[in-house]
Amino acid sequence: MRLGAMGLLAHPLLSQESPHGVSGNYMLLDMIAALQWVQNNVAAFGGDPNNVTIWGYSSGSAKVIYLMASPLAKGLFHKAICQSGIPADYYALNPRPMKETEELGEKLLAKLSVDKEAEPLAAARALPWEKIIEADSALAREAGGLYDLWGIWDISLGGWFMPDSPLNIFQAGQHNAVPFIMGGNLGEITGPGMMLMPETIPYYVEMSLGASRVNIKSYAYIFDQVPTKWRQEGCVSTHAMETMYMFGNVDESREWEVLYFLARQSGAKSKDPGVTDVDRKVSKEMMSMWTQFAKTGDPSIKGLIEWPAYEASIDQYLYIADPLEVKSGFSKIGPD
Fold first, then answer.
1. pTM of the model
2. Average pLDDT over residues 308-313
3. Residue 204 and residue 91 share a domain
4. Residue 79 and residue 98 in contact, taking contact as beta carbons nearer than 8 Å
5. Which residues, 6 or more positions from 314, have their beta carbon under 8 angstroms from its beta carbon?
6. Dist. CA 321–CA 300, nearest whole Å
């Protein structure tokens, strides 16, 4: 899959090459190509092309939402899981209209000193990929702020892939109508930490309201399980912590050492999180609910938990810790 400038570059000359008259969004088109491959081939591996679930966390969650909003992805998947990440349209940083991303592409070719060539695209394509990355990084530093940290590229609005911002598409009820799970980790919403994202909650609520307009169910959750030792040290459920449980990696010490990079910003003081049987129990429960949702479109499991679909008037969500608990007030969760 193409990333960064390779995956999101737009330019007037690239748009002229396209039969659709647009450019950019190649990274997401690659994802669509992968989903098309699944539709055409998964049956040969024993899979069901009529029961495909897409899932992502952090920026991966944003990509899932892009696909849920894109008319090109219609019919390619049937359920979605969005964890701790939303598209950039909420932040008013990106995405930009196609004209603006094309102008950004012109700046990149100028930074590469190929814009005056007789065939600028051919000259750019002949460059080593390292040169493109260097120029891309230089533009991000010049832009400063979050652009310097995350890069300058995101999806382009307009054209066949994303005719409007994802949030507008959801609010109009024009997204791909599939049930979805949405949520985040309590510590990444309330802090402290390096990866704080309270904006995910109001965005997910708007997505759910859009889903209700087309009679589609969504399921909200907040994850808040923290291993014993880290919780005693004051650590909160930081960004990415839920992946340890969802993938069944709670006994993998190397994985916790990697997560410590974020956890120490959220209160952890030692690399050993103090995993117990409680963590193993929550991990099994989470894997069971996610698998059940992928199978049926409903994460409830008889004898374990009845997870209600989200309704704005009730505002219920599943609190994932020990024990599992259905609570109210999802839309009101925010920084302390």
1. 0.93
2. 97
3. no
4. no
5. 308, 328
6. 16
